[in-house]
Every structure is written in structure tokens, then in C-alpha cells.
């Protein structure tokens, strides 16, 4: 405050009335309007227009209120059976992303040829023509030299229009390198559900019918995949069911829940097995799902082997094998010793789960699995759902109803691939997926997934070859992947990089050309598939406002514009493929402009939802115009037990406690590399040998840094205001950051337990330096009882050294505001799934007062 | 008679922040400056107990629209800029306000300077718009982050024709959708919406349906029924302000 007005007032109280009469306000104010009059009261005219929010991976169908061509408010789509017309805080926050003065407004090129963390790119504006010509020339050079594989496309967040830029563009051009971000998010989590239930995806959770909700390694009301649905239902669930939250930090769910289990990081497997041990020794498993001993007599006694022949399973496979291999000795007491969660609480929670069976949600989040050795803890957590029958069942975890949209036409794509493209797209990818030490066994296939965080190794070592040209879109891997130093090095080495972006982000700082792109949700076309509350949803994005500047839609317009330029240079295959594949599905007319291609793509993919030809098993939408005006389609509710009766997509068609599916996958991977499974396990940093590799089990957590030098474990979490890494240039982010429990607004907060703080001589509000094997940076200490002693926690998001005036402390100098968690978390992978390992406590740190 | 009131069901509330952000989009309130938060809706957080028996709760806060409003009492102008409407809203008239801040001084839920935030229990339901300065300095700024390549707040305003560019435009005889300098401002229960049979925007926007709005004098209203059904509390009851924002149930189930 600059002037103490009230002090002035005390001296001149009487003068106030005079001031009001003489008028100190603006002339056109409402002085003469009578208070209480209802004349001309209310909102100026506007329209609610449907689109989709991509602030997190809920992918909410939303509506934007538009006045005079400006986006002014956001709410949930009125037709949504997931968010019931409401959005979470991110939905509102996005307005500051749209109207951000630091958005780039035209194409730019780098004029400083030197690349590095501390090199100013010296960007200057260029014309669209110069930008596209330069890019096309570089691409042609690769084709002329018969090395199209040295082109790499990197995809961050996406819509399902990704097909155009992610599949058609590189495949017709001739590169195998379309590297997605997927393993940054939760592939190790999907690994957990796949190698038990046969479902490689996020699960839906039937909160409304659950009697026990065990939340594990996430905070569903803040992040994860169904945020508004969880926000709406948590309060009611607390009245009806028991809610327990497993997390080393006090999340909102943990604060509200009946039980908080603040485990030691990386001990999720042990805790899950401890709970399983109680359920089994108590005889508390769900008979309908799991089956029973032939004579009904429970032989699960602590430490005792059980004869497999004595137990008859129903919907499951391998319970006794699992017990004998991994569960029998993990008593509550032992699990307590490893996890730090008291035995009596483990017993209480296990009995609660059993009592509520089968209406149990075991809600697995990334925190349960995205560890260096987290694949098996993901399986262990998901296996708990299996034990109590809460799989594909009322009040449990669910798979999804089908969304009948069109797929990319692979025949057209192949038709336009020339010999060079056909040959070179078969080359090994730059992330080295599928190598012995990096199985990335997505859906059972060795090398079937992506290992985003291994791409920098491929680039740095030019192994399998050099990447000469990189195009990134809606991504910022050098900020969003742990081990940022490695990415900085890799990106500095790529000779020519194009970034399709809305902001000059960290990735942009290593780029040669930046192309301004539309903000997802407000300015572009696309469609998303999502699910919650038993409903699958297809929701579209469309421009609800006209962009202020000439920006392009990254996924569709960029490929088209480049295709035109390549055609001018004698390579017309991409153009020919695009105009054939994305002809108007109603008239057959080929798109003549990039904008037409975008619209046609949306029309093509969503056509089965609105053309009335087949029963969609969901909302009836009468034609294309209604699709655009509604903006979304809901399925019928998902049918419970769709996969019971031997219909799970596992090897045995059952829910597997002993994973024949994983056994087959690991064996195939081992055979591919002519080694045995034990060698694979050794190469991927796991300790399990023999049969243990096929069952959910506990692995001792990996740790980077000695206890002496780095005594504390770092816990990363996602802020409820994170629009992934894209909301940190919004002033509202800082103003309301304190809505994350334990956080303080306006600062990058590191939460420490009072015991640790006292020992380190750190007081609340002190500036501290946090250092790991990965890097070091500054944060502000918050001494708080909501963190487990021995751990410190900080939300991902801050620590930008680019992006904008608010996100960075000094953009021009590249000075960070706070410290990026991904600099603190040393580079590491969960190698079975190819995931970035960011949880599980491998990030050991020391914290010092500055 | 009508007495508008809000009940906040803490069991349903998850402290997500949507109400306060929605309010900022509806009422186009400024960014924090000079210790003025301009958050007509905000939160305070309380941590109790010790690990692992830590308790935590979030309380959404806003103007309490007190029946015995010290801000109204303190307002020195005639007719008062801060006054009670017939339906119990503590209304603020922009035109009559002289920016003396006596209301802010008198209000037990306001501070003349907020240096911290809800993490430390600090908030202010009344904010003051500094004299002689834009209330939207973020959007009057002319600097470009990368010269010639990025835009500026001022340029965005020029091109969109609104400040802030996402300004929700509405009309009301007492207040404007973006208010001038040298006056105070605060939550007015979105009277421009109530008068059109819409709920205050924070209530509409709450994704957990934790905010319930209605007429306390109508026994059939949801607010009246909830207060009958549940024990409730108000903030700083001892101040005798008779708030019309009530809290029911416990945030935590532990």
C-alpha cells in the first residue's frame, strides 16, 4: 500500500461527502442511476460455445462464453455426464493462457547459431514463407541424401488429430521417429493394470457406488484423469464410504479421508502386499471374483506355502502362486517396517477393504508406479482391486465403453509411401526402445511403447544415428522430463530444430525456427476421447474465438503447409496423401487450404457419431452441424463385468495374480536378445530373479545419492493449478497456489517436516537451496506437518527459465523463478515400460538455508 | 423480507480454487498489488495436529454480507457508498465511494495490507483500487518479452477492445464490470446475476456443489433447510457482525 488513506480520512472525515458531490469519479459513471433499480441489469449479450479443455488429461468437454468475439468465461459442457457442467480451477485459469502477452505472434528464427542453456537465441521475426521454405529445404536435404530417418517429430500434448502430424507426416516422409510424450505420464501405471487385468489404459472409477475408495499415489480431486467428476463426488463418498489415501504427502484427498497412509517413498509394493497378506490370512477376499479353497478352509497362514491344487479360482489366475512367491512372508508387521505405515493401520485398511468388497475402488495413480522399480508396485496395487473383486465391477475400477470414431486410413498412407519411406521408416527409433536394457514392453510387445526420456541418449550418442532435424509440437521435454541437463545437452546438439508452440518455452530456446500455434481449447480443431462415471465421451475442439494473430493448428495445418512446400520442391507424396485422406467425407472434395484440412479431419474422424448410419450406443446426434453445436457425444453407461467370464485381455483371459502375460512378454524380449529373463531383470535395474519376475512384488527402492550426502527424499506432485507445464505464466497461478495443501502463493514452496527443518536450522519462509545428483536450485521453505519426516515435497510447474515474464524470474537472462522439479529429479527410467521415473524416492536431496 | 445468504458445505468442498478463479473471470478483478488481493473470493487454510495425525482444512472466504455490517456503519458518505440492500446484500456503489477505506478498516474480515495469503490465514474481502493508477496494470504494460515477436498487454487490449481482454461485460446501477481507481471493491453476491434469476457465479461454478445460495427468510429455501439440518458456524462470531455466510459440516472425515 502506498498511501494510508484512512489516516487522511481521520483528519478530513467531513470532506468525504463533499468529495462525493463534487465528483471524483469518471464522468460516465452511474451516478444518477437509482440504487435498486433493475433496469439494464445483467450480463452483456454473448454465447456459450462448446470445445474441450486440455489443462490436464481429464480432457473436459467445456463451453466458453464469448462476448464480442472474446472468450470471457468457462464452464463444463451442459451435456457432459462426466463434469455435469462444471470445470475445475484449471478451466478458468486458461483465460490467462489465451490472453497472455507473452505468446509469440509470428514466425521467428534464431540468429545466434550457438545453442545452449545460457545462449540467447536472438530471435527475430520472419515471414511465414521464409519459415516454411527453410523447413522444407532442410527436409528435402534429408530426402536427397537418403536419410529421412534423421528427421524426428516430438509430440507433447495432443488431440486425436495427431494422426496427421504424428503418423502421416513422418511415415510418408520416411522417418520412424515420431516420439510421443506418453511415457512421461503414466506408462508404468498402465503396466500395472495391463499385466494383471490386461488393460493398457487409465481406469475409470465408479465412485458413486463404491463403499471403500483406496486412493494410491494421486489426488483425484486435484489431478489425474477425472478431476471434476472426483471433485463432485468425494464429499458424498465420505458420507457413504470409507476413503483412504496412500501418499507420503498430505493431499486434499488425504486431508479429507478417514485414513491417511503416509508411506515411505518407493515402498508401495510392500504396503500393497502387506494389505494383501491381511486380506488373505483373514479370508477376506471376494469369493465371486477370486474363488475359494475347495473345502472352504483357509490355508493362507503367515509364512506357509499353499498347494495350488487346493484352491479353485473363478475370474482370476495364479493367486496361490502369488501367495507362495511374494505374499506369504509380507505380514502387516513386515510391511509396516518397510513402508513406515503402522501395522494396525494396514490391518484396519485391509479389513475395511474386505468388508466393503466387491464395491471397492483401488485408485492407482502415477505415484504408485512411476518409480525406477515401479512396474511391480503398480501391479501390486492393482492386484488389491482383484483380491476384493473391485475389478470391472459395481463400485470398482472400470474399463471403457467404445467410442465409434473413424481411424486413420492405413491403406491410403501406405499408397503414398515411396520406397525410401517404406525402407527408412523401418529403422530403429531414436529412443532405442526394445533394446535389451530398455524393454518398453507396452501391451506385451518388446519395444512396443515409447521411452521419451531415452530419446536424449539416442541423440547425444548418435545411436542408432544422428538426428539432424527435430520438430516439436505442444511439448517442452527439456522442462517436463526429469534429467533436464541431459535434454539440454541433446537439444544443443541437434543442428536444426523447429518448435510449434504458443510461447517461447525452454524447448524453444534450443530451436532454430518457432511457429506460432493456436491455443488448444480456444483457437483450434481437434477431438478427444475420455471417460468417467461409466461414460465414454468424444468431445471436440473448435475455434470459439478468432486468434488475434496468424497462428496455425500444429497437428493439421503445419503438415499441410509443409506438404505444399515439399510439393513445390518435387516431393508431392505428403500433399497427395493428405488431400486424399482428408477429403470432405460428405462431398469428397479435396481440401484446398490448411484450414479446410483441419475441418475435414474433424468431420472425417467423428462422422460415425453424427451421420446416423449405425447405432453409436450413445447420444443420437443428427448431423454435422449438431455435432459442432453440442460439441460432444456420451456413450451409454459402461456395462459392469464386461470382461468377467474369461474375457480379460490377458494370456489366461483371467485377472492374473501370476502374470502369464508378463512372463510371455519378458520371455519374448529375452529371446529377442538371446538372453534369459534373469539377465533382462538385471539389465533393467530390478532385483527380482526367477519366478518373482512374473508376480506383483516388493522391490527395494533405487536411490541416487548417499544418505550421508543427500539425506532427504524428494516428493514431486502435480499442482491442481497446473495446466501441465503451461499455466506458470498466468498471474492467477501464483495468487492461488496456496490451494495446494501446504503451499504458499507467490513462491516455489518446498515443504519440510518441522523435525527436519529444526535439524537443518531452517525456519518457515527461509530461502533454501535444494540439491540432488541431478541439479540444484532455490525454493522457499514451508515448515509443515503434512509431509513425512525424511521427505520434502514440492509441486511440479515452477522453475521456468523461459516461457514468459511471469513464469521466469528474468526471461532475458534465462533466470529461473524457483527450481524445476525435473532438474532436481535425476534422469532415470522405469525400463520395463520405458517410463520417466519421477516418483519412488530415487531423487535424494539435501536442503540448506541460503 | 429477503435475506440472501450462502451456506458452504465443507464436507463437499475440496478447496480446489474454482470458485475464486471463476469470480475473477466474472468480475474482472485485478491482480494483487500494494497489498490489495482483489480476490472477492479467497481461501484460508488451517493445519492442526502433528504427523501422522495431521489435520488440514480449507475455508473458502468471501464478504459475509453481515446483517450488522461494520463497513456500512463506517462509510462516511451520504447516501452511503457501502449500504445494505432490501434483500440483505452488503452493496457497494462505485460512484459514491470516495476511496477513504474506512470500510476496509472497520471490516473484521479485511486488512489494509495483505502481505501473505490464506496459507497464513491472511485475506481481505475488501480491496482498494489505488488512486491514479490503472486497476489492470498487467494490461496497460507495453513491454514486449521478445521485441517484435511477442505482444504486450496494451497491444492485446487494443486488439480485443477490452481490459482485461477476457472482461465479462455486465451492467448494474451500483457497480461496473471493471471498476475505476480510488474506490474500494468487494463481493456483491453477483447482484447483476441474482436480479436475472441466476446464482452468484462462484455458486454456479463450484464443481462440488459446496456453495449453496438462497433466501434465509424463506423456510423452504435450501440455505434455510441446511442450517436447520446442520450445526453451522460463521467467521468471527464474537465480532457481532451477524454474517450471512455460514459453514456447515467438517472438511475432514477424520
TrEMBL record, chain A:
Look up the record and name the cofactor or cofactors this protein needs.
[4Fe-4S] cluster
Keywords of the record, alphabetical order, are: 4Fe-4S, Iron, Iron-sulfur, Metal-binding, Molybdenum, Oxidoreductase, Signal
Q: Name one GO molecular function term.
A: 4 iron, 4 sulfur cluster binding
Pfam families tied to this protein? Molybdop_Fe4S4, Molybdopterin, Molydop_binding, TAT_signal
So which residues are the signal peptide here? 1-19
A GO cellular component term found in this entry reads:
cell envelope
Top-rank lineage group of the source organism: Bacteria
List locations, semicolon-separated: Cell envelope
Residues in domain 4Fe-4S Mo/W bis-MGD-type?
A: 46-102
Task: Indicate whether Iron appears among the record's keywords.
Answer: yes
What family does the Swiss-Prot or TrEMBL record give for this protein? Belongs to the prokaryotic molybdopterin-containing oxidoreductase family.
**What binding partners and quaternary form does the record give?**
Heterodimer of a large and a small subunit.
User: What NCBIfam families does the annotation carry?
Assistant: TAT_signal_seq
What is the protein named? Tat (Twin-arginine translocation) pathway signal sequence
Q: Which organism is it from?
A: Desulfofustis glycolicus DSM 9705
UniProtKB/TrEMBL annotation, chain B:
Q: Which residues form the 4Fe-4S ferredoxin-type domain?
A: 4-33, 88-117
InterPro entries, per database record: 4Fe4S_Fe-S-bd (IPR017896), 4Fe4S_Fe_S_CS (IPR017900), ET_IronSulfur_Cluster-Binding (IPR050954)
**Could you tell me one molecular function GO term of this UniProt entry?**
metal ion binding
Keywords attached to this entry:
4Fe-4S, Iron, Iron-sulfur, Metal-binding
Tell me the protein's name: Fe-S-cluster-containing dehydrogenase component
